Automatic annotation (TrEMBL):
This is Probable queuosine precursor transporter. The chain crosses the membrane at residues 12-31, 37-59, 71-90, 110-128, 158-180. GO terms for cellular component: plasma membrane. Pfam families: Vut_1.
Length: 223
């Protein structure tokens, strides 16, 4: 039983990438919904999207910049595929007895703009995050993971929030509300980024932990 669930380093990478894509896809779909905490308006994608930065920072730390960039690029491609499939699903003629076409179009049809905003924000902010993380890694000689994680994620989340909210919601609300939404989105993401630091350390330690039974055939990764 232990051998069935034992994971080598490559298996762990595959698992992390799977979680990364899941968080990314869910974020794009649920970001259509806005919710309020007091007077603060937030997108539901805020619940899952910060997880993607935790994962890319962990992958960057253990497997290198090249692997992290590949994950980001594949994420972009798979999201484009999702957008095409969503469009196709909306265009299919509904069955006569099915009375939910308008609701389906309202939700899935609203996703393309959100996904387009998310794709642009995702691509630019994630690549910036990977780049800055490794610049800081060089500057700190591979030390102070907490500093690299928080600094790169905080800066990239500001870029992400500004691009995403502007593209996804410009014209749907007053300018003041739009700016307030960007600021509040970023502040919440900043708090989450600071809170995820222990989990980055845990993930990196888990990735680097070698099991004598599973890591004997482990692949070599080149940054």
């Amino acid at each position: 039983m232990k051998e069935v669930f034992a994971l080598n380093k490559q298996d762990k990478l595959i698992l992390l990438v799977g979680i990364f894509f899941t968080a990314l896809f869910v974020s794009n779909v649920v970001s259509v919904k806005l919710f309020t905490v007091g007077s603060v308006v937030l997108t539901a994608g805020l619940l899952t999207y910060p997880l993607t930065f935790l994962i890319t920072d962990s992958i960057s730390e253990v497997f290198g910049k090249s692997t992290a960039k590949k994950v980001v690029l594949i994420g972009l491609f798979t999201n484009l595929m999702m957008l095409v499939f969503f469009f196709g699903a909306v265009q299919l003629p509904p069955a006569e007895f099915w009375g939910m076409q308008s609701e389906f179009e309202m939700i899935i049809g609203a996703v393309p703009r959100v996904v387009a905003a998310s794709l642009i924000a995702y691509f630019l902010s994630q690549l910036f995050d990977v780049h800055l993380f490794h610049k800081l890694k060089q500057a700190t000689n591979g030390k102070h993971l907490w500093l690299r994680n928080n600094a790169s994620t905080s800066a990239s989340q500001l870029l992400d929030s500004t691009i995403f909210v502007t593209i996804a919601f410009a014209g749907t609300m007053p300018l003041g509300a739009l700016v307030f939404m960007i600021v509040t989105q970023y502040l919440v993401k900043l708090v989450i980024a600071l809170a995820d630091t222990p989990f980055v350390y845990m993930t990196v330690k888990w990735l680097e932990n070698k099991d004598k039974d599973t890591d004997t055939e482990e692949s070599t990764y080149v940054s």
